[in-house]
Amino acid sequence: MKKKHRIQKLLCPLLALLLAMTSAVPVFAETSSVAAWPSAPEIADESGVLMEVSTGQVLFDKDMNEIRYPASTTKAMTALLILENIDDLNQKVTFTDVILPDLAPGNSTINAQVGEELTVEQCLYAIMLASANEVCTQMAVEVAGSVSAFTDMMNARAAELGCKNTHFVNANGLPDPNHYTTAYDLALILAEAVKNENFCKIAGADKYTIPATNKTSTPRNLENHNALLTEGDYKYEGAIAGKTGHTEAARNTLITAATRDDMTLVCVVMRSEGNDRFTDTIKLFDYGFDNSEKLPVYWLKAPDSEEPDGYVILPKGASTASMMVTDQDTEGVSRTRTYSYQGREILKLTAAFPLQVETRTTSDMSMFKVGTVKKQLVSPLVFPAMLLIFAGLCAGLVSVLVQYVRKKKAKKNRKQRKKITS
């Protein structure tokens, strides 16, 4: 009887440990509605991209990483840096002779004069609506002390935003072999810029008037060149900001942002001819808004939390439960969860151990309390230790069983010998 008790004492913790280990293994198998990614439209432009701002998710890509000349779409970065570095938009700016090279015939200008005074706000409207090259140069000096110092800021900011194929050498986008970018990098820049309320106010205006100044007796009437933002055949519902560009080297370029149904999309098209940049941008916006929706993702937070862990853009009619989920742990320090839909990776979330997971409980005929339960998941490094313990218990159990069998066999042999001798 004592031997049986010893075996039971070993078996009980062994089975309990095995049960605990089994219950800790996550299972990601859930059936739900699956909708296919919609077919992308054809565009005439040589490269283009459609991106959702809050997630950074790319919905359309045509050679988006091909290096191109940006032309005046450069000015989105120029305006962003001005707004990030000058708080008072009523601050006065006095033009100097640094602007003279940009006043050459054929350049986009407002014909600013040396000694003329404008406010920072007026300069921003001149940059984004009239595409005034000399104003970009003067504001670069105003912000950084020199154009080269300002372009250093532009390149550093681009790198911060994740741009990998961008290099600026001026603030206005005039052609230079070392001044280049891609459709994707421009989308990253515009996605950051439209988070700034003043940028959207200025870059989304259809008209603006600069009143008479100390050097001019008549006002300057400015008009936005982006047809999606002005009254006419191409005006797009929900368009909030944008910038056109054109040089012989770059051909036509266009960056635009639009908001609808809780989604903000940015569209970039490059090396375009004629009005293709407007028709193709409309085509891509319609494709994004008509076929996609923004859905919350819950991992550590309960579904009733005010803010989810993240968002994804999925085809309309799809469910987040249909996504494939994979986890990867880094030296027991953190866990990265990757969400994919129909083979396309769309979201990564990372959290440090221990993970505080919130789960939502709901009532079922008043049997369960409604509320949120928090669970703590420990580092997976705990499992090797549990396995060692498990192995030790197994070894101990085997040893006891072997001893038990030997003693029982010896006892049986002694009984048989007694029978023979008697």
Automatic annotation (TrEMBL):
InterPro entries recorded: Beta-lactam/transpept-like (IPR012338), Peptidase_S11 (IPR018044), Peptidase_S11_N (IPR001967)
Entry keyword Protease: yes
GO molecular function terms attached to this record: carboxypeptidase activity
Domain named Peptidase S11 D-alanyl-D-alanine carboxypeptidase A N-terminal: residues: 38-272
First and last residue of the signal peptide: 1-29
Protein name per UniProt: D-alanyl-D-alanine carboxypeptidase
Nucleus is among the record's keywords: no
Family: Belongs to the peptidase S11 family.
Coiled-coil positions: none
